[in-house]
Specification:
There is one protein chain. The chain has five helices and no strands. By secondary structure, the chain is an all-alpha fold. The protein has a single domain, classed as Fumarate reductase/succinate dehydrogenase, transmembrane subunit (3 helical TM bundles of succinate and fumarate reductases). The chain is elongated. It comes from Glaciihabitans tibetensis.
Length: 151
């Protein structure tokens, strides 16, 4: 059994390797800390407006969400919450895969699945937030929610 030596962090080999490209691990680490702090603010604001202010959880329905998303402030708030939370979670999953997946092929497949699912959920979630029309123009007015009235 031979012992491999790891070069000192500030050695010539380590400096040469770290000088190439972007240090994704460092930026991922910074992102997790910054997004975590911002997410705490966004989540507690979201919970306060949805559960504490007004009539609580019994008031949350399609009309509540549609009314909330009629205000551009809440559209931006919920979009930021969606993006930060999904990227924060996928970055955490990426870290777990890098730590525990020892087979390079399995690691590549898992990282691809994380990236693909994150991208799909970001696109679909953003589309829902920005394209929701609670009162579309349709022929049969009886199909519309009660708060829309006759168009």
């Amino acid at each position: 059994m031979t012992a491999e030596t790891v070069p000192a962090p500030r050695s010539a080999n380590a400096a040469r390797k770290s000088g190439r490209g972007i240090n994704w691990e460092k930026w991922g680490w910074i992102y997790m800390r910054v997004s975590g702090v911002i997410l705490i603010i966004l989540i507690f604001g979201h919970l306060f407006v949805n559960l504490v202010a007004g009539d609580g959880v019994s008031a949350i329905d399609f009309a509540f969400v549609a009314g909330k998303w009629a205000d551009p402030f809440w559209v931006v708030w919920d979009t930021a919450l969606l993006w930060l939370a999904l990227i924060h979670g996928s970055n955490g999953m990426r870290t777990l895969v890098n730590d525990y997946a020892t087979n390079p092929r399995v690691r590549k497949i898992l990282l691809g699945a994380i990236f693909a699912s994150t991208a799909i959920l970001l696109v679909l979630g953003t589309l829902v937030i920005y394209t929701l029309d609670p009162c579309p123009s349709i022929e049969d007015v009886s199909l519309l929610p009660s708060f829309c009235g006759a168009n």
